Amino acid sequence: MISRDTFTNQQAFIVTANDLTRPWGGHRDGSRFRCALCGHRFTEGDTARWVFTNGTPGAGGNPFVCSDCDGTNEEVIAKWRQHIADFRASKDKFWSFYPCACRECR
Ligand SMILES: [Zn+2]
Ligand SMILES: [Zn+2]
Asked: How far apart are the first and last CA of the chain?
């Protein structure tokens, strides 16, 4: 059973239509509600997980990850830290940096 009490329990959850209307990143259209590792834009029915990283130097931001990118918290944090480091070294816009390979969320 997947808990829907709150995503901050760091348990995987199924994305609902309601989740998509939250003001993620200041946008209510869901365009910023994405997997932080591959850029996948979450849609209803996707599995997502929120990972607390603000306690980890160089890996702040508390990313959401999709089921494809998920792993242990340690794995996600390591990938997320690398992503941030790569992003800071580039001039790309954040979400164009690792575009998701799936067609649905383009
Ligand atoms: Zn992903
Ligand atoms: Zn995608």
From this structure: 31
